[in-house]
Amino acid sequence: MGTSEAEDKARRLQEVADAAERAFRLLPAAPEELPHHGARSRAPAHRINSDPDTVERDLVRLVLTLVELLRQLMERQALHRVDQGDLTEEQEERLGATLMVLHDRMSALCAQYGLRMEDLNLDLGPLGTLLPPAD
Predict the structure, then answer these.
(1) Is 123 helix (H, G, I), strand (E, B) or coil?
(2) Number of other CB atoms surrounding residue 108 within 10 Å
(3) Which CA distances in Å does 49 have to 28, 30, 54?
(4) Which pTM value belongs to this model?
């Protein structure tokens, strides 16, 4: 393995380690990690509070959010290809129909789990929302 390949591999491993570290910081704190301020102690504000009663719905919401993000990215890529003239008229029609079916299926899945499409737009705090505003 050459030097640049080894450096590239080390960089990728470090990126994975950094991502894992960020992810673990979001896990609920263990009781021994919580600060004890007399009788009043509470979890740090940056911890995720998970409710066992809603964990399935929350997981479905997260998965559907990721699928919706990918669907929107695919839609933008398709529009870009149409604008560039890379597709035949038949390909444009087929792509348009496929994207409409994907959108309908997403709406149906949201309805099945009692969610709205707006519920999939996660608030990322100072970064704004994950998905762009609805047109």
Answers:
(1) strand
(2) 9
(3) 7, 12, 11
(4) 0.55
